[in-house]
What does this fold into?
Amino acid sequence: MAEKSRVYSRYKWLVDIIQRNDGITFEEIDRAWQRSSLNTVPYSPLTARTFHRHKRDIEEVFGIIIKCNKSSNKYYIDNEDEVEEGKIQEWMLSTIAVDNMLMESRDLRDRIQFEDIPGGRRFLDVVINAMRGNKVLHMIYQSFWSDEHQDTWLRPYFLKIFQQRWYVVGVPGTHPNTLRTYALDRMVSLEITPEKFKYPKRFNPSAYYANCYGIFHQEGEPEKIILKVQDDQVKYFDSLKVHHSQSKRDDLKEEGYTYYEYRIAPAYDFVQFLCSKCASVEVIEPLELRRWVAEELKKGIEKYTNK
It folds into this structure.
């Protein structure tokens, strides 16, 4: 695992140096590699054979195509627009970039604090391999809402990460006509079976969650939602959108506030988010959502006042 991480770090380094320089010759790459902290033998050269192997592997693993401009002998990213749109590549590359920085900052390990993340990652390989071969999974699952284990089969359609938890969405044996969502950190055991299933060609995971805030999938058409946000929170909302449909309502003006519009099918996780922002965010419409949030806040207030 450590060796794979080192190799991926080199891939990331190579992609970074090509992107940063907007084209670079092999000789320039070699000189930069000799000075790099990732070079385990300081000042040893990068051979052309190793470079071209990395170049080929980067295309196979990340879908990033590196080509050479014959007139200038400079290497460049041929499909940069596609790479910028690719969320998986972006996530993988940014993860490796962070790993690189941490590896180079081991002397500061006592001054870098991490957040605990549930341990569902140990089942990621199992789910990915099952999806690749369209194989049915046998799982034993422990829900937060039940004391009993659920022993069932699952046709895994896709993976989703939300708030640092991994989820697999698929069709379980207990509900053969319904998509269900399962948290990987709640898996007791998970194994691939020989049985295959047919993944629907027209199914689109992004479309499935397009109208959702988080992990809860809500059927039906999205609703127009208007939020009133205090101006001291606007930069946070602008820098990290609550939902891809977020837009500002410049026609709605009030001193000290900014209005945002969304198209979301509200579910409980969205209400939880709104409750967590209650001091600075107000639901203007729809009325049903405003009442739902108010009811949840009322329950919380009662816990603090009835003492």
